[in-house]
Amino acid sequence: MDTTYFGRQWGIMVLYDARSKRALTVMAIKRETNAIYTQEVAALREKGVVIQSIICDGKSGLLGVFPDVPIQMCQFHQIKIIVRHLTRKPKSPAAQALRALSLTLTETYSGGV
């Protein structure tokens, strides 16, 4: 689930099912809030949709909103945060190693399903 903005006035929030490869919820919003995500997940559950896990952008507080569902931050957003703090061409050996490690996130397998 994520929101993409088109200018500063509005965005599109999408909750997407990776298995069926279809959007379950698409809505225009003015501001992305945890309350809207909570409301939309509850609406999907009322329709009988089983939420097995959630991948999100790591918006402040969102990772703790669904304590009964496994949730993780999107790998793209994780890498973007690391690059923002390290730069694309880090100078120190430690920063270079951390950047190299961060770029392997998309290839890392934790053993889960």
Overall average residue pLDDT: 87
Shape: globular
Given as residue ranges, the uncertain stretches (5+ residues, pLDDT < 50) are none
Helix content: 25-40%
Annotation field: number of helices: 3
Strand order of the largest sheet: 1-2-3
The chain-level structural class is alpha+beta
Report the order of strands and helices. Answer: EEEHEEHH
Q: Evaluate the radius of gyration.
A: 16 Å
How much of the sequence lies in strands comes to 15-25%
Straight-line distance between termini: 19 Å
Describe this structure in words.
A three-stranded antiparallel sheet has the order 1-2-3, covered by helices on one side. The chain has a two-stranded parallel sheet with strand order 4-5. It starts with a strand and ends in an 11-residue tail after the last helix. The protein has 113 residues and is an alpha+beta fold.
Give a summary of the structure in a few sentences.
This protein is an alpha+beta fold. It contains 3 helices and 5 strands, in the order βββαββαα. The longest helix has 13 residues, at 34-46.
Task: Fill in the keyword field for this structure.
113 residues; alpha+beta; two-stranded parallel ribbon; 22% strand
Secondary-structure map:
Elements: E1 2-5, E2 11-17, E3 22-29, H1 34-46, E4 54-56, E5 71-73, H2 75-86, H3 93-102
Parallel strand pairs: 4-5
Antiparallel strand pairs: 1-2, 2-3
